[in-house]
């Protein structure tokens, strides 16, 4: 739920400050600690900004040129999109995030953070183009951790991140996705349904306002937020120069427990992960209990059954360089191949324009999933109508349609309607 316009007028001034000096800066936290109100700082103008002794001449010029009207516009759009905005002044702002060197002054949230300071949280990050070994372990570990009440934090990327989020969702658990762009940005369409599903029981969050594009330099900076929200961080299939090692470094700097999935000794995919273990920086992991055992007050009983993903659940997880169903084909640069491929593409497009989706029978479904799937056709049906049609409560329907979405069988349209994909 988004903030009401009058809930906290100081939000506008925090948005203004960040717009002026940029992200991943320790200076907003210093302002919060020095001044009773960010509004007082804003109204003090250039004389006050200089007296604070915090800002460079270039930053003071930026503060002078930054428009409060633009900040108001960002806030209004966020509210319209249904996002909540939290600043240092809000009780909902995670204390675990405030305690790092450069916490975000404004946090944009779609969904609920669910008292994250008082829950055991594990971050899972890794390769965007992992082997099946990494995908399966990320999925299984997230699934099983969720079943014992752990919240999973990750970055919404293809590969390992996606496997961790989906494992959590399929377990009915809580997960938080930290983006390096605006929440409403068209980023990684393969994961759009997943991000939407996350907001029902967890949250998609960002320090970047709506419409911020996924710029490359944003993602290393957002890794500090993933580690800050996590009590421990698991690295899965990190190569020698993997971006996941940035998250590992943040975790170590912030005093978090670091874990790494053990990989083959001669695998380039696992070089960085294995090195963390060799250097004594990370606890080696082969199953979820290796993580649980490092924390007090979390127990796995004899009745707890470890879950292992089906091949169908692993197969639909999008990986960089691959589409949902098969590896990307190599490009043939011969003119003949180009012509054949163009003719084939034209035929496929024509068929797609004339043929409607039909129910598939090549993917294994539970009885409940099958019942819901067969009740959805080519015309969008609202979740409430589906609930009446099947005599199933909406809260019980949502996990089922989520699983069908993630298996690529249905898609959601505007206003919580669903149709065949």
Description of the molecule:
- With 421 residues, the chain is of the alpha/beta class.
- The protein has 19 helices and 12 strands.
- The strands form 2 sheets. It has a 9-stranded mixed β-sheet, sandwiched between helices. The protein has a 3-stranded antiparallel β-sheet with strand order 10-12-11.
- The longest helix has 20 residues, at 335-354.
In short:
This protein has helices spanning 10-21, 27-34, 38-43, 45-51, 57-65, 68-80, 95-98, 132-147, 160-170, 192-201, 218-228, 244-253, 271-278, 289-292, 311-315, 335-354, 367-374, 383-390, 394-406, and strands at 84-87, 106-111, 121-126, 151-154, 175-178, 203-206, 232-236, 257-261, 283-285, 381-382, 410-413, 417-420. The protein is an alpha/beta fold and 421 residues long.
Which features does this protein show?
single chain, 421 residues, alpha/beta, nine-stranded mixed β-sheet, three-stranded antiparallel β-sheet, disordered N terminus
What is the radius of gyration computed over CA atoms, rounded to a whole number of angstroms? 23 Å
**Fraction of residues in H or I helices:** 40-55%
Structural class: alpha/beta
**Termini distance?**
29 Å
Global morphology: globular
> Largest sheet, described in full?
9 strands, mixed
Mean pLDDT: 86
The low-confidence runs, each spanning 5 or more residues with pLDDT under 50, are 1-6, 324-354
Strand content: 5-15%
């Amino acid at each position: 739920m988004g903030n009401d316009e009058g809930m906290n007028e100081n939000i506008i001034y925090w948005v203004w400050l960040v717009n002026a000096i940029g992200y991943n800066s320790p200076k907003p936290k210093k302002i919060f600690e020095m001044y009773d109100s960010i509004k007082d700082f804003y109204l003090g103008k250039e004389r006050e900004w200089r007296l604070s002794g915090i800002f460079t001449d270039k930053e003071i010029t930026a503060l002078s040129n930054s428009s409060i009207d633009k900040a108001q516009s960002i806030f209004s759009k966020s509210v319209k999109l249904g996002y909540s905005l939290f600043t240092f002044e809000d009780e909902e702002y995670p204390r675990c995030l405030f305690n790092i060197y450069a916490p975000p002054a404004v946090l944009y949230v779609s969904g609920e953070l669910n008292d994250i300071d008082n829950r055991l949280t594990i971050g899972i990050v890794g390769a965007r183009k992992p082997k099946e070994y990494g995908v399966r372990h990320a999925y299984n570990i997230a699934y099983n951790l969720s079943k014992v009440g752990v919240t999973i934090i990750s970055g919404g990327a293809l590969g390992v991140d996606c496997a961790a989020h989906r494992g959590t969702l399929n377990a009915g658990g809580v997960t938080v996705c930290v983006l390096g762009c605006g929440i409403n940005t068209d980023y990684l369409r393969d994961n759009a349904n997943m991000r939407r599903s996350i907001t029902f029981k967890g949250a998609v969050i960002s320090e970047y306002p709506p419409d911020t594009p996924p710029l490359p330099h944003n993602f290393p900076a957002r890794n500090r937020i993933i580690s800050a929200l996590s009590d421990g961080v698991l690295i899965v299939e990190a190569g020698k120069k993997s971006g996941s090692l940035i998250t590992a470094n943040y975790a170590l700097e912030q005093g978090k427990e670091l874990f790494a999935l053990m990989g083959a000794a001669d695998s380039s995919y696992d070089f960085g992960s294995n090195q963390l273990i060799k250097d004594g920086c990370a606890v080696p992991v082969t199953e979820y209990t290796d993580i649980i055992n490092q924390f007090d007050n979390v127990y796995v009983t004899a009745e707890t059954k470890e879950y292992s993903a089906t091949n169908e659940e692993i197969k639909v997880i999008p990986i960089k360089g691959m589409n949902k169903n098969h590896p990307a084909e190599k490009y043939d640069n011969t003119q003949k191949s180009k012509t054949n491929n163009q003719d084939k593409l034209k035929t496929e497009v024509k068929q797609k324009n004339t043929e409607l989706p039909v129910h598939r029978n090549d993917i294994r479904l539970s009885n409940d999933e099958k019942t819901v799937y067969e009740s959805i056709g080519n015309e969008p049906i609202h979740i409430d109508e589906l609930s009446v049609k099947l005599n199933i409560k909406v809260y019980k329907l949502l996990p089922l349609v989520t699983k069908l979405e993630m298996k690529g069988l249905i898609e959601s349209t505007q206003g919580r309607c669903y149709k065949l994909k």
